[in-house]
Design brief:
434 Repressor (Amino-terminal Domain); Rossmann fold; Four Helix Bundle (Hemerythrin (Met), subunit A)
């Protein structure tokens, strides 16, 4: 999401890099380019005008710090403007859960916006927060809509309201509320029928359901790919329903991001979640500050940590940390890292969360770094015997040919994987020397992630805010240099490293 805008803004800021002072003419030129970038990203014109007016005032006002480089100053002003546009510098609002359960959440949206899938994703997220959730389909018009929600409820490991053929939507809502109260559910999610703003009968039905259910949250699900149509849809629905928030689906496929940037400013409604994949767990809490950071190519380390927290097997991580501390790193461990990477969103998903990656997109493309490459590497390791994975030094030419045939790749790819493994193993051996101090810190962090009492997770969440007791910058640089070596950062799937790429370096 926002790829085109990120590229355009990055080029604008790069051109400012060598300038010592910005004149009013320079500011006007920069703001004109930022204006074009926002309009090309499909941001609503009134929103762009307001943004440029405030940014220009900030860039030429008394608040400008002369000791700060102009490029950094403009980046900061743009960042602050984006945060304000996206919802202000406040903590993500999240869901308003009632103190007297069950909390009722009403899902509304156009046909085909992904509303039913989003209802199940939300149920899964609430279930992980130890809430007992009941899903109820009120869609009596679309064929098999109720059966679809029941199937998705099983995937999300939550309950769904039993289907009664022929019952009207308002009656289903009453039955769902009664069942939720009698059976002690914390949350009941009502999935209404997809409708159009021109269908007066269906809009009236939605309003009636809202009166019956008196929901704590009424969420409009909108497709981000529809751009400004999504903004107009939100305004039309808000006139008929007491909307409390928005969910933008297919955000991962929206390269422009204009809908997200316009929604809050035009409707006054907060964006609460982003749908980022077709998978049942593909729902992210919307955070204005973090999204603004992504747009400006700063990555999203907090999201990366949260993803690791959800997917990390603490026991396996601790066992691997102990082996790495001894300088041990075989191909089984490399395969486990590849699987961990896939569980966390794949290579492309992880790279998108790392700061600075946007500036080396060309190198990444030339290196053919993709999830398909990671799959091929995993297939190569799977084609080896247990002994070969433990002792790759025994892999002679005949064994490599057999492995390549089994994985469906060329022998050259097998050799590249083995070279990459050797480089990583050498780096870990270097880090294990001197008492394994680097691994002690790593194990301490891993031990806190997912474990009780906050521990490492609480510290890692404050990584960007300077609140956690981290190693000094020099120590981080040294650790990064050991992992990076001469050829670039050594991570699984990078095919030998990215030249000059160090995500630890500012």
């Amino acid at each position: 999401m926002f790829d085109a805008l990120t590229d355009r803004l990055s080029s604008v800021f790069d051109r400012l890099g060598g300038r010592g002072v910005l004149s009013e003419k320079d500011v006007a030129e920069v703001m004109r380019e930022i204006r074009v970038a926002l309009l090309e990203a499909d941001v609503a014109l009134p929103v762009v005008r307001d943004f440029i007016a405030k940014a220009t005032e900030a860039a030429t006002g008394e608040a400008v710090i002369r000791s700060v480089r102009p490029a950094d100053q403009v980046v900061k002003i743009t960042y602050d403007g984006l945060v304000e546009m996206l919802g202000g510098g406040v903590e993500p609002e999240g869901l308003n859960l009632s103190l007297n359960p069950p909390t009722v959440i009403l899902m509304a949206g156009l046909q085909g916006s992904g509303k039913t899938t989003t209802a199940a994703k939300l149920a899964l997220k609430l279930g992980k927060d130890r809430k007992r959730v009941l899903l109820a389909s009120l869609d009596t018009r679309r064929p098999a809509a109720m059966e679809q929600l029941a199937t998705l409820a099983k995937l999300a490991d939550v309950d769904s309201l039993p289907i009664v053929i022929g019952q009207a939507a308002p009656d289903i809502a009453r039955r769902a509320l009664q069942s939720a109260k009698l059976q002690g559910y914390d949350v009941v999610i009502l999935d209404t029928a997809g409708r159009t703003t021109l269908d007066e009968a269906m809009m009236s039905e939605a309003a009636e359901i809202a009166r019956i259910a008196n929901p704590s949250e009424t969420l409009l699900v909108a497709d981000a790919l529809t751009g400004q149509d999504a903004v107009r849809t939100a305004k039309a629905f808000h006139e008929r329903l007491p909307l409390t928030g928005l969910v933008l689906t297919r955000a991962d496929g929206d390269g422009r991001g204009g809908a997200a940037l316009s929604m809050r400013a035009v409707t006054g409604l907060p964006i609460k979640f982003l749908g980022v994949s077709e998978k049942i767990d593909g729902l992210e809490v919307f955070d204005a500050a973090r999204v603004a950071g992504r747009i400006l190519g700063q990555g999203d380390i907090v999201a990366l940590v949260e993803k690791a927290t959800e997917e990390l097997d603490v026991a396996k991580a601790e066992a691997m940390a102990k082996r790495l501390a001894k300088g041990q790193f075989d191909l089984d461990m490399m395969a486990e890292q590849l699987q961990q990477m896939k569980r966390m969103g794949g290579m492309e998903g992880l790279m998108g969360m790392l700061p600075g990656v946007q500036k080396i997109k060309k190198q990444i493309a030339e290196a053919n770094i993709s999830d398909r490459m990671v799959d091929r590497q995993a297939a190569i390791i799977s084609s080896m015997t247990k002994v070969e994975r433990k002792k790759p030094d025994i892999l002679a030419a005949s064994r490599k040919r057999r492995i390549a045939a089994g994985a469906g790749v060329d022998v050259a790819e097998v050799n590249r994987l083995l070279k990459q493994h050797r480089q990583m193993a050498d780096a870990f051996k270097m880090m294990s020397k001197g008492g394994g101090r680097g691994f002690a810190q790593m194990a301490q962090m891993l031990g806190g992630i997912g474990g009780g009492g906050g521990g490492g997770m609480d510290r890692l969440k404050n990584l960007g805010g300077g609140k956690m007791p981290m190693p000094s910058e020099k120590e981080i640089e040294e650790m990064a240099a050991k992992l990076q070596g001469e050829g670039g950062l050594k991570l699984p799937g990078l095919g030998g490293g990215l030249p000059g790429f160090n995500p630890f370096k500012k």
